[in-house]
Write a structure and sequence with these properties.
The structure holds two protein chains of two kinds. Chain A is an alpha+beta fold. Chain A contains 23 helices and 14 strands. By secondary structure, chain B is an alpha/beta fold. Chain B starts with 14 loop residues before the first helix and ends in a 7-residue tail after the last strand. The N terminus of chain B is likely disordered. The chains are: A alpha+beta, B alpha/beta.
Chain lengths: 449, 1238
């Protein structure tokens, strides 16, 4: 057992309002400078939707992450390392600027300095790349709130995976938001892709970084990352990515995106994992086993054996105790309501998500029943295949069972708490029905609300 | 677990790669993992330095963002090397208590993008002025040697005047220095006051709560010189007129933390995640507590994302939905079943048990007026007496006698009412209904209905009625059941047969045909809503917003929803009641702000104008009304609006003293005083006599006459011409006199005004000077003659508060105002100094005759009993100031002393005290403290000598805090003690213990500070509870500020009756086809289609602010767009992101289309306040610059909003006035040429 510590995050999508405050505070703090105009370390996607850069989840096209060979070995999907070294000067698997978006500004100056003319002055858009006037045709968040829905959302790679039935239902509208940062994976394919050894995972906290001095701008990391969360600074010629705000983390402050999240949906914390188990877990045969395998890599911080092993690795006492009090450990491992994003990429992502109950619940109206009643909600969760299958494609490689289990827990919590809210007798059978006790349900509620 | 084909441990790639990597790991600076997957590194990371450097900063300063955002979020502004770098939210709000979520981190993406403006290319860095005007001014001044004479010289020459007016908005701004800019501004003001009168000067700056000092600094200047501040809350149509109508309160709402207390939440026309971004988390969190969340919106709005149920009502039909829910609640909880909690509540806190006379018509009765003590021969064994016309009457359940309970308006302003203005019923049980009363008989009741598109009709229903003091009367409750169609045995009339009877209003099945929401769903939700209220003790809450408020009949819709809440006992409860969040009116330290902003410390009364009527009149939108004022009347109307144009209604309201109107008369008010004094007459009597004789006319009776134009307008903290100006193109043409895309036809001759003068030629260019202050370029700055460079919110001291949270906190300068920018405080003081200098020669000391409307919360509200129309010009009454017409006052203005007065706290604070909502406190101790803290003026011989200095923004902030009960515990306690004398019940305990608490400016700089419970508001924070409105009324028995002292379902004013709105009623959207000849929704020919045109609030801006911000533009679509449904887009061949043009009679908009299945067919959204400054090409229709979102709208004035002089229906600034509603509009949309030019 090699115990390592990882700062990880859980985002509760049920609470995300898609406001993009995280995107803006992150951008303002880190990437509002030449060369990174198009870069959003943190972005928020409306789902269904194409994402940023568009259709990044289509790994048949972009070849990010790992794949398991027939012989059971793990190989970068973009090609073995030798092949990648050989093709270092021609990397066709890079999204173009148009796949992100061509950043622009406006002739704002005209508003102040326009000479007397016939018309009211206006600021026309102008490319920040070419300097030429342009028509804005894509942005970091072009399909926000289902904008362009019928034309654009059909190209959502996740939507494409789910059945035709689901696509039809999609016309009836559902949406939710997916905020994304770098996953700071346990098995980072970007790091493995770098021919210069410029990328690394910090041993004490697992933050994945690009050494700005060592980076030679090969951009293999951009291809290697299936989440497309490594960016190329076209001014400096170096890769840049979300740093998990390490200058803040190091002094005890949360990441900017966490601190400024007005939906209060981000949970930041420490987990302990067994580094020796990572590769094995990432290489399980059936994609649908990856969620469980990833869970199994995470260690119980209260287990004496784990604590001893952690001490042996030089992990400080306050870190061990942080891991023991970690809210994310509870959400991921104890309550099992948080799920990894696209475990099938086999990178062992460390930003986890609580799937949204809401696009399920709002469909209950068609059944004409009270959504607070656990029975009705459970019925809805079973009956309404649309979001569940879609969510399963995001979080559990298509296996709907774990998503179903999470949604039931959330639904049960609401039912249980409604009795508390109205001063009625509580019903222990509600938590029991989802494998929880009244105490654990209350504790989970305290953590989520 | 491992499952490799050779049965060994899992491996990477192949053997060659591994060999390569194994070799490589010795050359790599980090530690390669044993399995070669990854590289770890510890320590010595030079490569990390970049981001550590990037993060490093020198200081963090607390500030926030001002104006028109309800958030009032406290922010950390980061500064490095004297440069503002970025901002993140503060996280130090005081806790709201255990076991609840906290307020932090309040913020949103717009606020997070604010610092972009600081150094942006759209930053106004220097003073600018219109080039042609500057040339004229310099030439005239060089010729005449005097700034005022120079300004007068330009204004006297129509050619030069029109030349610079026509150049407005077309570029050509040139840099000037502060001295010259300020001199021109001062000269324009002095000339206007001298030549036309101070009431020809106007100021516009909204929402003081969001930066009280910046607002007050300018308003104080305008008011001290005698100008008029125009209102904003009603003008924005954010004012729910239902609030004064029902509650007698401007608006008072729960803080968002109180959503957590609810157990049923209805979001109705309020897109919380977008418009209340910092508060939305409570919604998500409350759900985890088992609260059910239901949303009503026509589109799949952002908030449906976390709703349990979505009721997709057709736009503008929400009133029908609410009426049907009311029908269900009344039937199930008042008739079929008796819920004591509900009946006790409505008996005590609403007008339901009060008696209303029935007026006989040929085929039935109609509701008449409230029975008052004056109608009774005797009551409670007392002879009729003081205030009887304002004392409403109930019937004692036990004795059957008519009784006059405490608490009505007759107890509020009378000597005999002292100690009796309360809701204490003693042992009295008012009777709710006469049904089953042997003394009653069922009579046929006629009620108006408006649901038929073909036109209004009459419902025949029945009520039990009986005789009281010789009059046939019934109760409001019985009227309500009749109105809602809830039948009972033995009553005449036509009644629905059940919920599924679609033929009769207001059943669930009836509404389904209108709203398209399923009848069963409505019945179920209404039942759940009321049942939850019953079970939880009134914890059903409706969050309601602009989506329903900003319609022409938004007040009717609101009353139908409020009825649901009042019936179920939810008002005045934590976790229950209405939560109207549109605009944020809640300047918590209200009294201090109002005193300084209105200059009440130096002169009273101030001039305060209803914005909507001001712009309706002076932008000549009235000349384009296609209909007469009675077009929307009830079929049962008595004809009060017959033959009248809406401009006539505005004028009549002014004539009767109901609403203010400025300019006042067709003469300079200072000359009026001179004339009166020369004639040896009292100026008030002189004016009344002149009016009676027809020698003096109201300016609004001939608004197009040059002597009646407004002349100088100052706009700060606002973008009037790029954002709120409903009828933007009318503003451009008539008020400003520049090019406009207006296409409307003038009112045909047969529908023109009866009383108001119609001039053949409509004036273009009424304003001599348009002045704006801003830190960014907007339509307003582009159209201004002088633009002053303003400091941003990160460059000044100020105060912020909101209704959404209970704190007050500070703005602080992170940097000094850069370039030549100045704070609003400094700018106005500079203007005042120049003004005073020029005034010494040109104005001196003058007497100004100030006319004001009959005011709410003053004896003015009992000036005209009975709620009837008595127009001294038409009816048999005399113009008596303060009774049948405006109040008149003579105010002495020492114009040379204005700048000194601005910079000091005047003596009226000590002598007259501070009055808010009829509660007066004397802040003698506070004045002494302020003198000690701020220093005093040392100018012997001047009226300001020895007065506390207000010569810095911090001192002004300190004075605001010191003079308000919410921030000064001593005044809070004193206010309650004063109020309890009138009420006769203990109240001061609500603030007791806070006497020592004085919130200082330094406190607000350190951390957001919770406010103190004060009589300025209707709710209580005592003991750290969450704020909910009207808890003081419900818990302490303090009356509402209404006629009955209770919440009103019924309004008995003549005009309410004529418009058919005495009771809650469904009124559909205004028919633009019938009134203006626009084509009908859905009409089209393949190239164009007519759609409803709605302007909901945007995710990417706060009004027009941030819509030009590069960060917001990069996250959205980079410019203005129109959201359309795929079906509508398909019909005209529009694909997503195509250029389209929207055209109606009011103007033209060119923008791109956003096609989404989130949109309902038949409706297009152009999100609010998309301006013409960014990515707006020339239109195809007119070849000129495309318009703003409000280029397609115009003002429609609802006559009932002009009622005044009658109890809660009396004027108050931003309390009551016509709304600038804009949602009933339609437009044609077509795909335009995809080649655009700018």
């Amino acid at each position: 057992m090699k115990v390592m510590a990882q700062v990880a995050m859980v985002m509760n999508l049920d609470k995300c309002i898609g406001c993009h405050t995280c995107s803006v505070t992150c951008k303002q703090a880190w990437t509002n400078r030449p060369g990174t105009e198009y870069v959003w370390f943190n972005n928020v996607e409306t789902r269904p939707g194409q994402g940023y850069p568009r259709t990044y989840e289509d790994q048949e096209r972009w070849r990010g992450g790992w794949e398991r060979t027939k012989r059971g070995r793990l190989r970068l999907k973009g090609g073995g390392r030798v092949r990648r070294l050989l093709s270092i000067f021609s990397n066709p698997k890079l999204p173009s600027l148009q796949d992100y978006y061509e950043p622009w500004t406006y002739d704002y100056d005209n508003l102040i300095n326009a000479p007397l003319g016939d018309q009211m002055p206006v600021a026309q858009p102008r490319s920040l790349i070419s300097g030429d006037p342009m028509k804005v045709e894509w942005s970091a968040n072009w399909d926000d709130n289902l904008a362009g829905g019928p034309q654009l959302a059909v190209d959502d790679p996740v939507l494409k995976k789910v059945s035709d039935q689901v696509k039809l239902e999609f016309e009836q509208t559902f949406m939710f938001y997916l905020p994304r940062i770098c996953e700071h994976c346990l098995n980072p394919s970007c790091v493995a892709s770098c021919p210069s050894g410029a990328m690394y995972k910090r041993s004490e906290d697992g933050i994945v970084l690009v050494d700005q001095d060592a980076c030679r701008g090969w951009r293999m990391c951009v291809t290697g990352c299936p989440y497309k969360k490594v960016y190329f600074n076209h001014r400096t010629g170096k890769a840049e990515k979300c740093t998990l705000c390490y200058p803040r983390i190091e002094v005890g402050l949360p990441t900017v995106c966490s601190e400024t999240c007005v939906g209060r949906l981000r949970y930041l914390g420490l987990i302990l994992y067994d580094a020796d188990k990572v590769l094995e877990a990432a290489a399980v045969e059936d994609e649908k086993d990856l969620y469980q395998a990833q869970l199994d890599v995470l260690l119980d911080p209260n287990d004496e054996e784990v604590v001893e092993a952690a001490r042996r690795e030089g992990i400080a006492e306050d870190w061990i105790s942080a891991a023991q009090r970690s809210p994310i450990h509870r959400l991921i491992k104890e309550y099992r309501v948080a799920l990894p994003l696209h475990p099938e990429y086999r990178t062992m992502p460390m930003v986890w998500y609580i799937p949204p109950l809401s696009p399920v619940v709002d469909q209950v109206r068609d059944t004409g029943h009270d959504a607070e009643e656990a029975g009705n909600l459970f019925g809805a969760i079973d009956a309404l295949r649309i979001p569940i299958e879609y969510l399963a494609e995001l979080f559990t490689a298509g296996d709907t069972a774990p998503v179903d289990a999470v949604l039931r827990k959330l639904a049960a919590m609401r039912s249980y708490m409604r009795d508390v809210n109205l001063g009625r007798e509580t019903r222990p059978e509600i938590p029991a029905g989802v494998g929880m006790t009244e105490e654990s349900m209350h504790a989970m509620y305290r953590l989520l609300a | 677990m491992a499952d490799t084909d050779d049965g060994t441990t899992p491996q990477l790639d192949g053997p060659i790669a591994e060999l390569l990597l194994k070799t490589g790991r010795y050359f790599t600076p980090g530690e390669v993992s044993a399995d070669l997957r990854t590289v770890h590194r510890r320590g010595g990371r030079e490569g990390d330095v970049f981001y550590r450097d990037r993060w490093s900063h020198d200081k963090v300063v607390r500030s926030t963002h001002g104006v028109n955002c309800t958030g009032s979020c406290s922010w950390k502004v980061y500064v490095k090397d004297g440069i503002i770098t970025w901002e993140t939210q503060e996280t130090d709000y005081p806790s709201v208590g255990p076991d609840r979520p906290e307020y932090e981190p309040r913020g949103c993406p717009r606020g997070a993008a604010f610092s972009w403006y600081t150094y942006s290319p759209t930053r106004v860095r220097y003073p600018y002025a219109r080039g042609v005007l500057v040339e004229m001014y310099r030439e005239a001044k060089a010729r005449l040697g005097d700034p005022v004479e120079a300004w007068a010289d330009i204004q006297a020459d129509p050619e030069r005047r029109r030349r610079y007016q026509r150049a407005r908005g077309k570029g050509g701004l040139v840099r000037v220095n502060w001295d010259e800019a300020v001199e021109m501004i001062a000269a324009a003001h002095v000339h206007t006051i001298k030549a036309h009168g101070p009431d020809r000067v106007a100021g516009f700056s909204p929402i003081p709560a969001m930066s009280m000092v910046s607002h007050a600094a300018g308003a104080r200047f305008i008011e001290l010189i005698g100008g008029a501040m125009t209102s904003f809350y009603d003008w924005y149509a954010d004012l729910p007129v239902a609030s004064p109508q029902v509650f007698g309160d401007q608006t008072d709402v729960p803080e968002s933390g109180d959503w957590w207390d609810a157990s049923y939440l209805l979001m109705w026309g309020s897109n919380v995640p977008v418009t209340r971004t910092p508060d939305a988390h409570w919604m998500a969190e409350a759900r985890y507590r088992g609260t059910k969340v239901v949303t009503v919106s026509p589109d799949y709005a952002d908030n449906t994302k976390f709703a349990d149920e979505w009721l997709p009502a057709q736009p503008g039909t929400d009133g029908a939905l609410a009426m049907a829910m009311g029908h269900v609640i009344l039937r199930e909880f008042f008739v079929e079943r008796h819920v004591p909690a509900f009946t006790d509540y409505v008996r005590t806190f609403t007008d339901l048990p009060f008696l209303v006379t029935l007026t006989e018509r040929t085929d039935g009765y109609v509701p008449g007026k409230f029975v008052t003590a004056a109608d009774l021969e005797s009551y409670d064994g007392m002879e009729p007496g003081e205030g009887d016309e304002w004392k409403t009457v109930v019937l004692d359940e036990d004795t059957g006698d008519a009784v006059v309970p405490n608490g009505s308006l007759g107890f509020r302003h009378t000597g005999s009412g002292v100690g009796h203005w309360n809701l204490d019923l003693g042992g009295l049980r008012p009777r709710l209904s006469f049904h089953g009363d042997p003394a009653s008989e069922g009579v046929t009741l006629l009620l108006p209905r408006f649901d038929d598109p073909e036109g209004p009709g009459v419902l025949r229903r029945g009520v039990p009625a009986r005789k009281v003091s010789g009059r046939l009367v019934t109760t409001v409750f019985d009227l309500m059941l009749a109105q809602y169609g809830v039948g009972r045995d033995g009553l005449p009339g036509d009644w629905p047969t059940g919920y599924d009877d679609a033929s009769q209003p207001y059943t669930p099945a009836w509404q389904e045909e209108i709203t398209s929401v399923k009848a069963e769903t409505v019945a179920r939700i209404a039942h759940e809503f009321a049942r939850n209220a019953e079970e939880s003790g009134g914890r059903s809450m409706v969050i309601m917003g602009a989506g329903i408020c900003q319609w022409f009949h938004g007040d009717a819709t609101y009353r139908a929803i409020l009825a649901m809440l009042m019936l179920t006992g939810c008002m005045g409860r934590n976790g229950g009641g209405w939560a109207h969040y549109v605009g944020q009116e809640k300047c918590r330290p209200f009294t201090g702000w109002a005193t300084l902003a209105m200059g009440l410390d130096w002169s009273r009364p101030p001039r305060q104008m209803i914005g909507t009527a001001y712009w309706y009149t002076h932008t000549d939108q009235w000349r384009y009304d296609g209909y007469q004022a009675d077009a929307l009347a009830s079929p049962l109307a008595e004809g009060h609006f017959s033959g009248m144009h809406t401009a006539d209604v505005v004028a009549q309201s002014a004539r009767m003293g109901w609403m203010p109107s400025y300019p006042q008369f067709d003469r300079n008010p200072m000359e009026l005083v001179d004339e009166a004094e020369a004639a040896g007459a009292d100026p008030k009597e002189y004016v009344a006599q002149q009016l009676r004789d027809g020698r003096l006319r109201y300016a609004c009776e001939d608004p197009d006459a040059p002597e009646n134009w407004p002349r100088v307008l100052t706009v700060w903290r606002a973008n009037l011409l790029g954002s709120s100006s409903k009828g933007n193109e009318y503003f451009l043409r008539h008020l400003l006199g520049t090019d406009a895309n207006l296409r409307a036809e003038e009112t045909p001759e047969d529908r023109r005004p009866r009383d108001v003068v119609w001039r053949e030629e409509a004036p273009e260019g009424k304003l001599d000077l348009v002045l704006s202050m801003d830190f960014r370029m907007t339509s307003t700055t582009l159209l201004s003659d002088v633009v002053l460079p303003a400091a941003t919110w990160y460059e000044k001291h100020d105060l912020s508060s909101t209704d959404m949270h209970p704190y007050v906190h500070a703005f602080n300068p992170a940097i000094d105002p850069p370039w030549e920018t100045r704070t609003d405080f400094d700018a106005f003081n500079a203007i005042a100094r120049a003004f005073s200098r020029l005034s010494a020669k040109h104005l001196g000391v003058r007497k100004d005759l100030v006319a004001t409307a009959l005011q709410h919360d003053t004896p003015g509200e009992v000036a005209q009993p009975g709620g009837s129309v008595r127009d001294w010009r038409r009816d048999d009454v005399d113009p008596v100031p303060g009774k049948t017409m405006w109040g008149l006052a003579v105010v002495e203005r020492d114009y040379a002393a204005i700048s000194d007065k601005m910079a000091s706290l005047g003596p009226l604070v000590d002598t007259l005290g501070l009055t808010t909502k009829a509660v007066t406190v004397k802040p003698d101790q506070e004045v002494a403290d302020l003198a000690a803290q701020c220093g005093v003026m040392n100018t012997p011989g001047s009226p300001v000598d020895g007065r506390p200095a207000l010569d810095t923004d911090v001192k002004m902030a300190s004075a605001i805090l010191a003079l308000s009960g919410t921030t000064n515990g001593r005044l809070a306690v004193e206010g309650f003690r004063e109020l309890e004398r009138r009420v006769g019940r203990p109240l001061h305990h609500l603030a007791e213990g806070s006497e020592e608490k004085r919130i200082s400016f330094a406190d607000t700089q350190a951390r957001p500070v919770p406010v103190i419970t004060s009589a300025e508001w209707s709710g209580s924070e005592t003991g750290g509870r969450r704020y909910a409105p009207f808890t003081v009324n419900v818990e302490e028995g303090k009356p509402w500020h209404t006629l009955t002292g209770r919440m009103h379902f019924f309004l008995d004013h003549d005009w309410m009756s004529d418009l058919g709105e005495c009771l809650p009623v469904f009124r559909p959207p205004v028919d633009m086809t019938a009134l203006f000849g626009e084509s009908a929704v859905g009409e089209g020919d393949g190239t164009q289609i007519t759609v409803r045109y709605l302007t909901p609030h945007s995710k990417w801006s706060i009004h027009s602010e941030y819509q030009d911000n590069l960060l917001m533009l990069s996250l959205s679509r980079g410019g203005p767009t129109l959201w359309m449904s795929p079906a509508d887009a398909g019909r005209i061949g529009v694909r997503d992101n195509d250029w389209v043009e929207a055209v109606n009679r009011n103007g033209v908009v060119t923008c791109r289309a956003t096609v989404s299945h989130r949109m309902p067919t038949g409706t297009a959204y152009m999100y609010h306040a998309q301006e013409r400054t960014v990515d707006v090409p020339l239109t195809e229709s007119t070849g000129t610059r495309g318009g703003i979102h409000n280029s397609l709208t115009r003002l429609l004035v609802k006559p009932t909003h002009l009622i005044g002089g009658y109890a809660q229906l009396s004027f108050g600034f931003n309390y009551l006035g016509p709304t600038g509603n804009q949602r009933d509009e339609v437009t044609v949309v077509r795909r335009r040429s995809q080649e655009v030019t700018y």
